[in-house]
Amino acid sequence: MKVAIGFKAHSGWAASVCIGAAKNSFELIDRRRIELIPEGEIWAKQPYHAAEDLAPDEARDVVKAGIRSAHRVAFEVLKETVERYRDSEYELVGCGVLMPQPMPKWSVDEILAVHIRMHKAEGVLFPEALCKAIEKCGIACVAVPEKELPELAERSLMRAYDQLLARMGKAAGPPWAKDQRIAALAAMIALNQTTRPKER
Q1: Residue 114 is assigned to a structural domain of this protein
Q2: Residue 55: inside a domain, yes or no?
Q3: pLDDT at residue 105, as a whole number
Q4: What CATH number does the domain containing 176 carry?
Q5: What is the pTM of this model?
Q6: Cα angle vertex 145, ends 84, 96, to 5°?
Q7: 84-134 per-position pLDDT tens digit
Q8: Domain boundaries, position 180
Q9: Is 111 a domain residue?
Q10: How far is CA 142 from the centre of its chain?
């Protein structure tokens, strides 16, 4: 069975939902929480906040270390995930990552100067790390703008996806909150995009 994974990232972790294509419908294969920071390194969840009161040079070093950490851990997690599916009955064909609105190309100093920019930068950090890790693992990555998710899902799935999600969640049981539902939609969109015949 061809499957895709959808991710909804937060600061330092992500909800992950794997969906399979089955008989003109979708099937829930797996769901889990994945950690995107090294164990015990809580500061790495919010590297800009960790750097907020430091001298400029030290602050830049802390932010760079946090970004490197996010990308390294995301790759380790994705590599392990790809290997797990490679040894299973499922064929992982793509991943969908829910993305926040793009961030202007601010420097670290410009971000640290305005507190709300720090939140925005940290909100972009982990989804971007997941996308880079997916691509590095050789898997098709579909970036799904979260604000456009309802329209994209309706257009891509061509069905009453809210009812589909409700049935899926009822059969699976908790946890099936908003994170799992929208990650599932991202996986379905990625599955459709990566398995749809290409137009000539």
Answers
A1: yes
A2: yes
A3: 92
A4: 3.30.420.10
A5: 0.93
A6: 15
A7: 998 889 999 999 999 999 999 999 999 999 999 999 999 999 999 999 999
A8: 2-195
A9: yes
A10: 10
**141-154 mean pLDDT:** 93
pLDDT tens digits, 33-88: 999 999 999 999 999 999 999 999 999 999 999 999 999 999 999 999 999 998 88
Instruction: State the SS3 of the chain.
Output: CEEEEEEEEECCEEEEEEEEEECCEEEEEEEEEEECCCCCCHHHHCHHHHHCCCCHHHHHHHHHHHHHHHHHHHHHHHHHHHHHHHCCCCEEEEEEEEECCCCCCCCHHHHHCCHHHHHHHHHHHHHHHHHHHHHHCCCEEEEEEHHHHHHHHHHHHCCCHHHHHHHHHHHHCCCCCHHHHHHHHHHHHHHHHHHCCCCC
**Dist CA 183 CA 34 (whole Å):** 13
Is 9 a domain residue? yes
